[in-house]
Amino acid sequence: MPYLETHTVDGVQYDLHDKRIGNDALDTTAQLLIPAINELHTDLDNLYDDVHGTTEIYSWANGTEAQIKAMVDAHYANQINLYDYWSVGDVRDITLNGQSHQLVLMHKGGKELVTPINGHTECAFIVGLKDCMADPMVYHNNYSSAVWNGMSIRTYCNDTFRSYFSTTMKALFKQFKNISIGNNLALENTNDYFSVPAHLEVFPNLESTVGAEATYLHTFTWYRTFGNTYKSAPGVGGTVYYWLRSFHTGNGSEYQQFYQNIVEEGYQVGQQRKSNSASDNKYYVSPYGVI
Question: Which residues pair with 129 in a beta bridge?
Fold first, then answer.
């Protein structure tokens, strides 16, 4: 707000320092009034800053790591609304383990935070890799007991993959409550920093989806454009298979299979049978987290 240096009453102007510009009939009144108005302006400015903060605004693509973290912090402090500035589909370049990648804002909200922040129980955005990390890996070394909790690929997401981020970016990503299908088709809850998507989080309408999963999970907005389900990996030409954390249920548990990439017409190819012999099969990984 602009601060007053002069005051005009009935066409007569006075300044803050008792220098008469016009008639001095109201000089004393002006000297008392002007500082009071300026003090009010200061109080209003401070109140505005307390309510709205002084956060500088940057795009997801171009802000520094510190700048985008400050914006996320301001969102959770109820000083700004990130949805006024960032949108699903925004892309940010990043280097992870020496590889060039892109982080995509894939969905608004959608995951419950393990630890609520200033009344926020839901994340601001789900953020995932546009493509895959360079090295393929097995889902687990023993498929006969393979469910998301305890899998080697889960350890990779939460430990190895997370370690590729800077300290600032680690603090940006929040731990979230993750729902998966466990043994005996029961729902399983894990607390994760990063995960590979479930089947329904990528592909919404396939009949083979486990019913319990369909009750609690939803397709990320980013993947509702089918072309976004195709992924590549550094140094690999064309599309690649990538792991999802859901399994397909056939005629009994012996047919439980883990999905990887769907490469044409919305149907699974190369579904991975749940058996010890499958442990040598390696596919790519495209983790996501939440901010």
Answer: 103
